[in-house]
């Protein structure tokens, strides 16, 4: 298959995958397609399944590419299993807000500037909150609208997550530290990738995008582990 045919097969399960992403994964040694005499990539069915494994491991398990590559290398050498990882729930609360079920088109390529946008009314409906609750979330920086006043679908997830936490007596004002910590992480990531984004080479931009995803996944893992360790300390475990 050509790289375009591979992209068409993957888009159903991974709407944000791009040709640049596939090329990046090839450059990182996660997939090694053949080449025609004229130099065009030629993917086999096994290459597509390998890409599915990589993309699912990133999306569902937040695994860094280094760890995924180690697993694939172990499977290639006969020291591990190439079976896909089980897919756990992807949300912290029992909801599934996607572009499809909120009535929005799926963006084919976020890197090209296509974004999913929600009006305030759509956000309130999907999150199951009222305007007063949204105002409180905005007051403490937990939900932010864009310059035109629209919200992205992640704002729905944030609102629903905070709503679930309020059932345990946690109020939005108690969560300002989460917003501050996230902003500090964003600032740190910006310092690392901004020099790369300044290059005009499209491949350099794709690499910078992937670095951001990798660092974000690592920061999520670190945050989870630190919170888990702290809770164990409180409970005496």
How does the SSE layout of this entry go?
Blueprint: H1 3-11, H2 19-27, E1 34-35, E2 41-42, H3 45-61, H4 65-76, H5 120-127, H6 131-139, H7 153-166, H8 176-197, H9 202-235
Helix pairs in contact: 3-4, 5-7, 8-9
Describe this structure in words.
- One of its GO terms (molecular function) is DNA-binding transcription factor activity.
- Keywords: DNA-binding.
- This is MerR family transcriptional regulator.
- The protein is an all-alpha fold and about 240 residues long.
- The chain contains nine helices and two strands, in the order H-H-E-E-H-H-H-H-H-H-H.
- The chain has helices at about 5-10, 20-25, 45-60, 65-75, 120-125, 130-140, 155-165, 175-195, 200-235; strands at about 35, 40.
- The radius of gyration is 20 Å and the shape is globular.
């Amino acid at each position: 298959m050509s790289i375009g045919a591979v992209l068409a097969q993957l888009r159903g399960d991974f709407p944000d995958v791009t040709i640049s992403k596939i090329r990046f994964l090839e450059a990182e040694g996660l997939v090694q397609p053949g080449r025609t005499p004229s130099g065009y990539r030629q993917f086999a069915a096994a290459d597509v399944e390998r890409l599915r494994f990589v993309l699912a491991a990133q999306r569902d398990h937040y695994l860094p590419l280094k760890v995924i590559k180690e697993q694939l290398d172990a499977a290639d050498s006969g020291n591990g299993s190439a079976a896909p990882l089980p897919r756990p729930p992807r949300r912290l609360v029992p909801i599934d807000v996607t572009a499809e079920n909120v009535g929005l088109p799926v963006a084919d390529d976020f890197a090209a500037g296509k974004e999913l946008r929600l009006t305030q009314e759509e956000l309130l409906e999907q999150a199951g909150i009222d305007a007063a609750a949204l105002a409180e979330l905005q007051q403490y920086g937990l939900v932010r609208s864009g310059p035109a006043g629209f919200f992205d679908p992640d704002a729905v997830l944030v609102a629903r997550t905070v709503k679930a936490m309020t059932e345990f007596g946690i109020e939005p004002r108690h969560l300002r530290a989460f917003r501050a910590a996230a902003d500090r992480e964003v600032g740190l990531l910006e310092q690392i990738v901004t020099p790369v984004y300044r290059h005009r080479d499209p491949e350099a931009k794709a690499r910078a995008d992937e670095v951001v995803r990798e660092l974000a996944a690592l920061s999520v893992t670190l945050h989870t582990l630190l919170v888990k360790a702290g809770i164990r300390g409180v409970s005496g475990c």
